[in-house]
C-alpha cells in the first residue's frame, strides 16, 4: 500500500506479461492523478485518458493520422533542416568543448514544435519552457493521490528536500513558525489579537487534534512544496499559449480558403482541427493531445540521444563500429534517402541497448485495475494502481547476461518477450514509437557521420560520470560535454 491506495510494482517480465498481455483489458485504464488532472485537461490526452470510447476514438485518430508512418515521413524536410543547423553549429565549434545535451535538446524541441505547429507558433520557447517545468513538477507525487479519503490533503503535495544537511536548520525554523502560529491563534481566541486570514499552517493546526497530527508531520507537509497552486499556474500558462496557437491556425486556414493566404503543408494541429467537427473534439481535448506529443516527444528523444552518445564514448569499439556502418551506408546511399535508417542495423542495436539500460521513463505510466483479479496466485484488488518498473526489468540478471554492462550483443540472438519494454506493451503501448525512434536514430547517425568525438581534455573513461537524475524522465545528472572533430571522407 502507498497511503490508502493498493499499489503493485511489477519488476519481472513474467508478471509484466500478465498485466500487459494476459489481463491487458483489465489493466487498460489510468488512475486519477492530481498533476495530470490539472495539467492534462482532466486527463483527456491519449497517454492519460481513462480506457473507454473517448480513448479508443483518440487512439484511432493518432494511429491513422497523427502518428502514421506516412505522416512521420512527411516531416522529414523539417528534421533535415533543423539537424543541418545542428551540424553546422557543431562544425563551427570544432575542437572546442560543447554542451551536447543542450544543443540536442534545443534541436529536437524545435523539430517537435515545428511538426506540431509548423512556423505559425510564435510562443515556441515560452511553451517549451513551461512544458519542461511542468514535467519536473509532475515528476513528484501528491498526498491526495495517496490518501483519497483525506480530502484536505488534495491541496498539499510535493517532495522531501534533497539535501539532508538542511534538515536540522529547516526543522528549527519551522518549529519556531508553528509556535508563533499557536501563540497568535491562542491570543485570537482570547480576543487579544485581530483575526487574520488563515494560511497553510493555520489549517494544519486546526486538523492537528482531529487527525492526530504531530508537529513533525505538520513540518513534513510544510517542507514539501505546495503543488496544486503551481500546477494550476502552469496549466493557465500552457492553456493560454495553446489557445493562441489554435486561434492562429484557424485564422490562417480561413484566409487560405478565401484565397488570401498561400496553402502551407499540414502540421499535426491542422490534422486535429480537421477532425474536430467530425469527431466532436473540443479545444481542450486538442490541447491535451498536443501536450501528449510534447511530453512524450522532444525530451524523451533528446535524453536517449544523449545517453547513447555517453555510452558509446565510453566504449570506443562500439563508437568505431557504429561510425563505420553509418559512413559506409551514407556514402553509398546518400544522407537524404528516406529508407536509409532501415539499413543501419548496428546503430539500431546500439539504441536498443541504450533504451534497455536507460529507458526514458524508469516507471511506465501507471495503470488501474478495473476489476478484481488474480495473477499467479496474488489477488489484485479493484482500483489497484499498477506500476511497471521498466528499468529493473531491463536489467534483470535472469534474462540478461551481465545486465549492468553496455553491450550490443544483448539482442544478437534474442527475441525479447516482455524483458524489454521501454515503450510499454498492449493497448496502452506508446503510439509514437515510429516518431520517437526516427528522432533518435537520425540525429545519432548524423552526429556520428560528420564528427569524431572525444572526452574533455584530461578526462579518462573511468572518470566519466554516468549518474542519473530522478524524475518522470531520467536524464544525466550532468550535461554531456564532448569535443568534436570534423570527419573528412
Automatic annotation (TrEMBL):
It is found in: Membrane. Pfam families: p450. Coiled coil: none annotated. It is a single-pass membrane protein. GO terms for molecular function: heme binding; iron ion binding; monooxygenase activity; oxidoreductase activity, acting on paired donors, with incorporation or reduction of molecular oxygen. Signal peptide: none annotated. Keywords: Heme, Iron, Membrane, Metal-binding, Monooxygenase, Oxidoreductase, Transmembrane, Transmembrane helix. Its cofactor is heme. Heme binds at residue 430. SUPFAM superfamilies: Cytochrome P450. GO terms for cellular component: membrane. Belongs to the cytochrome P450 family. This is Uncharacterized protein. It comes from Lupinus angustifolius. The lineage of its organism: Eukaryota, Viridiplantae, Streptophyta, Embryophyta, Tracheophyta.
Amino acid at each position: 500500500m502507498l497511503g490508502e491506495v493498493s499499489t503493485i510494482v511489477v519488476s519481472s517480465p513474467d508478471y509484466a506479461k500478465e498485466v500487459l498481455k494476459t489481463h491487458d483489458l483489465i489493466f487498460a485504464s489510468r488512475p486519477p492523478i492530481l498533476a495530470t488532472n490539472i495539467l492534462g485537461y482532466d486527463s483527456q490526452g491519449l497517454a492519460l485518458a481513462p480506457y473507454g470510447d473517448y480513448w479508443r476514438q483518440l487512439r484511432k485518430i493518432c494511429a491513422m493520422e497523427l502518428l502514421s508512418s506516412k505522416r512521420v515521413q512527411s516531416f522529414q524536410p523539417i528534421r533535415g533542416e533543423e539537424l543541418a543547423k545542428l551540424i553546422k553549429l557543431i562544425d563551427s565549434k570544432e575542437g572546442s568543448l560543447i554542451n551536447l545535451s543542450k544543443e540536442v535538446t534545443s534541436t529536437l524541441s524545435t523539430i517537435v514544435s515545428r511538426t506540431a505547429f509548423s512556423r505559425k507558433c510564435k510562443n515556441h520557447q515560452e511553451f517549451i519552457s513551461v512544458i519542461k517545468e511542468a514535467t519536473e513538477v509532475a515528476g513528484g507525487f501528491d498526498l491526495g493521490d495517496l490518501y483519497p479519503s483525506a480530502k484536505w490533503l488534495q491541496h498539499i503535495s510535493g517532495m522531501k528536500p534533497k539535501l539532508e544537511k538542511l534538515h536540522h536548520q529547516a526543522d528549527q525554523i519551522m518549529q519556531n513558525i508553528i509556535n508563533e502560529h499557536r501563540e497568535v491563534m491562542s491570543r485570537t481566541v482570547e480576543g487579544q489579537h485581530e483575526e487574520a486570514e488563515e494560511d497553510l499552517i493555520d489549517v494544519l493546526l486546526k486538523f492537528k487534534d482531529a487527525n492526530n497530527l504531530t508537529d513533525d508531520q505538520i513540518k513534513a507537509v510544510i517542507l514539501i512544496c505546495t503543488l496544486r497552486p503551481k500546477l494550476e499556474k502552469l496549466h493557465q500558462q500552457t492553456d493560454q499559449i495553446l489557445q493562441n496557437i489554435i486561434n492562429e491556425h484557424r485564422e490562417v486556414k480561413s484566409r487560405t480558403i478565401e484565397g488570401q493566404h498561400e496553402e502551407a503543408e499540414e502540421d499535426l494541429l491542422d490534422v486535429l482541427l480537421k477532425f474536430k467537427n467530425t469527431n466532436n473534439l473540443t479545444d481542450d481535448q486538442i490541447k491535451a493531445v498536443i501536450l501528449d506529443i510534447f511530453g512524450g516527444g522532444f525530451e524523451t528523444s533528446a535524453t536517449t540521444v544523449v545517453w547513447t552518445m555517453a555510452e558509446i564514448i565510453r566504449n570506443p569499439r562500439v563508437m568505431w563500429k557504429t561510425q563505420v556502418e553509418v559512413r559506409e551506408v551514407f556514402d553509398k546511399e546518400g544522407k537524404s534517402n528516406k529508407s536509409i535508417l532501415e539499413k543501419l542495423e548496428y546503430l539500431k542495436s546500439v539504441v536498443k541497448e541504450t533504451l534497455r539500460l536507460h529507458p526514458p521513463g524508469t516507471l511506465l505510466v501507471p495503470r488501474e485495475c478495473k476489476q478484481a483479479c488474480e495473477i499467479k496466485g496474488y489477488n489484485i484488488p479493484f482500483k489497484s494502481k499498477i506500476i511497471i518498473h521498466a528499468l529493473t526489468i531491463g536489467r534483470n540478471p535472469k534474462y540478461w547476461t551481465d545486465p549492468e554492462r553496455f553491450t550490443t550483443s544483448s539482442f544478437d540472438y534474442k527475441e525479447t518477450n516482455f524483458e524489454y519494454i521501454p515503450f510499454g506493451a498492449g493497448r496502452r503501448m506508446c503510439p509514437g514509437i515510429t516518431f520517437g525512434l526516427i528522432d533518435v536514430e537520425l540525429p545519432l547517425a548524423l552526429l556520428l557521420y560528420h564528427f569524431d568525438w572525444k572526452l574533455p581534455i584530461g578526462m579518462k573513461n573511468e572518470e566519466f560520470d554516468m549518474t542519473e537524475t530522478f524524475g518522470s524522465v531520467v536524464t544525466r545528472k550532468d550535461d554531456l560535454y564532448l569535443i568534436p572533430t570534423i570527419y573528412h571522407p
